[in-house]
Amino acid sequence: MAEVELVLDCHNTLGEGAVWNGADRRLWWTDIEDCRLWALEPQKRHSASHQTPERVSCFAPRGNGKGLVVAFATGFALYDPTTQIREDIVTFEPDQPDTRLNDGRTDRQGRLIAGGFDEKGGGRLISSVVRLDSDLTVTTLFSEVGCANGICFSPDGRTLYFADSMRAEIWAFGYDPDSGRVGEKRVVAMLKGNRPGIPDGSCVDAEGCIWNAEWDGSAVVRWTPDGRIDRVVELPVPRPTCVTFGGADYGTLYITTARAWLNEEQLAKAPLSGGLFALRPGVKGVADSPFAG
User: Fold this and answer.
1) Per the confidence metrics, is the pTM higher than 0.85?
2) Cβ distance 264 to 83 under 8 Å?
3) For residue 132, is it within any domain?
4) In a domain? residue 293
5) Residue 15's domain is classified under what CATH number?
6) Does residue 50 fall inside a structural domain?
7) Domain that holds residue 242
């Protein structure tokens, strides 16, 4: 069994949105609540972070090399982390002042799929999942979302996986790579009553299995596409948040975690909460496509 290692004791309040950028060979992620973008060069063991103008929920490198496309809490923007120049694209759910953007990932064609949640709490299913195309237009894919998480795609790009943390379920949608439209939905996993935590960020491996970070479950779980648990990787912290494959061979699974909303007693028991972890699980990942716009 592969061992989990602490890569960086970065004390993230809410580490999230991990992405491996093949162009610069760095792992990028966000600390949402601290308004910081992080980058790690594994070979040099060098990390750096900088303050962002707003909370960053998720993002993707642009294929043209001109910075990132970013889902800030309030909307989408083009953002250059070097110059910190921000070009706003569109506000997210302007008719829903209580929601903010949350999880997202590009499809195999380079569109950004991202969704939101009700930040005011109460379990309301009032948000949505949208698609940002290369021409910077936005299309709603589905609504009645409680808390969007776990967005990722099968290796062939024909299945969109999605986790609604509010419902504690992982879903699979048929996905048309040409049009970017979603099709029929099926339930992959129901965690309530079956697992201790709730589903957070996900990625897929080259064998088509889903790796899901289980918030308050102290684990990353590998699910088969038909909903069977293949592997459970225990962590020394209760709140893993996001996973992505990276490294030169895409054989390293990186795991972001959170310290958010843990009390002093909980932090004393799990002092590495908010750190960045990694393991070599013996299976490789699939490179995410850069944003096509």
Assistant:
1) yes
2) no
3) yes
4) no
5) 2.120.10.30
6) yes
7) 5-279
Whether 286 maps to a domain, the answer reads no
Q: Structure tokens of 50?
A: 């900088």
Please name which of 3, 7, 2 lies closest in space to residue 277, comparing C-alpha atoms.
7
CB 210 within 8 A of CB 225: yes
How would you classify residue 272: left for phi > 0, otherwise alpha for psi between -120 and 50, otherwise beta?
alpha
Q: SS3 string of 95-107?
A: CCCCEEEEEEEEC
- In Å, what is the CA distance from 171 to each residue of 167, 184, 185, 209, 234? 11, 10, 7, 13, 23
What pLDDT tens digit does each residue of the chain (293 aa) get? 679 999 999 999 999 999 999 999 999 999 999 999 999 999 887 899 999 999 999 999 999 999 999 999 999 999 999 999 999 999 999 999 999 999 999 999 999 999 999 999 888 999 999 999 999 999 999 999 999 999 999 999 999 999 999 999 999 999 999 999 999 999 999 999 999 999 999 999 999 999 999 999 999 999 999 999 999 999 999 999 999 999 999 999 999 999 999 999 999 999 999 999 999 999 999 999 999 99
CB 37 within 8 A of CB 30: yes
Give the count of domains, the chain. Answer: 1
Q: How far is CA 81 from the centre of its chain?
A: 19
With b for 16 or more beta-carbon neighbours within 10 A and e for fewer, the 8-33 pattern comes to: bebebbbbbbbbbbeeeebbbbbbbb
Question: Strands 5-8 and 276-279, how do they pair?
Answer: antiparallel
Q: How far apart are CA 172 and CA 18, in angstroms?
A: 21
DSSP assignment of 184-224: EEEEEEE-TTTSSSEEEEEEEBTTSPEEEEEETTTEEEEE-
